[in-house]
């Protein structure tokens, strides 16, 4: 019985360490995406790396980062990548190709993200947003501020949520609903502040 107890304690500690390592790797990958998207430079310049014979850590390669999504109300800061594939959504939110462009009149820039994810519930709290809440998107081209104008739940076949509205610059956030299910979609629409 004593050996079984030691086994369970060891198993529990191993699971905690594994979870911590997975979350740390995911965090580093998200940070690499954010830094690449915004063109943030390392505190050590590339020339300094070469002079001091220091190798740059390339384990966290950023793939197609285009910006950073920030939603202060739900404490969300997440990189945005081009494309909404399963691979691209692993550590980021994905701009749905064929939608957008960002910040342009009569456009709808659509972003998809996981609601419950093993490395972080990126859009986990998206349902807490209300009309008037702020959404910020940073890119190399600047910062764009939006206010939520609508929140709704639709079936997955309602692709018209991707359509632009004449005279408005919109951002639409899309995720599965309810939590841990993909039966419906939670849609949050925000309009560019003028």
Automatic annotation (TrEMBL):
SUPFAM superfamilies noted in UniProt: Sortase (SSF63817)
Keyword Transmembrane helix on entry: yes
Domain of life: Bacteria
Membrane spanning residue stretches: 6-26
One example GO MF annotation: hydrolase activity
The keyword Transmembrane helix is assigned to this record: yes
Gene3D superfamilies: Sortase
Active-site residues (renumbered): 114, 176
Keywords on record: Hydrolase, Membrane, Transmembrane, Transmembrane helix
Matching Pfam families: Sortase
CDD domains in the cross-refs: Sortase_D_2
Protein name: Sortase A
């Amino acid at each position: 019985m004593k050996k079984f107890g030691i086994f369970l304690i060891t198993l529990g500690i191993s699971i905690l360490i594994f979870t911590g390592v997975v979350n740390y790797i995911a965090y580093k990958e998200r940070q690499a995406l954010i830094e690449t998207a915004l063109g943030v430079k390392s505190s050590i310049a590339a020339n300094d790396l070469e002079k001091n014979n220091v190798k740059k850590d390339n384990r966290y390669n950023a793939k197609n980062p285009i910006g950073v999504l920030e939603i202060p109300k739900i404490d969300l800061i997440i990189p945005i990548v081009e494309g909404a594939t399963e691979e691209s959504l692993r550590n980021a939110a994905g701009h749905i190709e064929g939608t957008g462009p960002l910040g342009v009149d009569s456009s709808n820039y659509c972003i998809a993200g996981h609601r419950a994810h093993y490395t972080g519930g990126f859009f986990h709290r998206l349902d807490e947003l209300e009309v008037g809440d702020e959404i910020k998107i940073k890119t190399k081209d600047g910062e764009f501020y939006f206010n939520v104008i609508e929140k709704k739940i639709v079936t997955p076949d309602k692709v018209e949520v991707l359509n632009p509205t004449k005279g408005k610059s919109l951002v639409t956030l899309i995720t599965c609903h309810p939590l841990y299910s993909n039966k419906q979609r939670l849609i949050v629409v925000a309009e560019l502040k003028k």
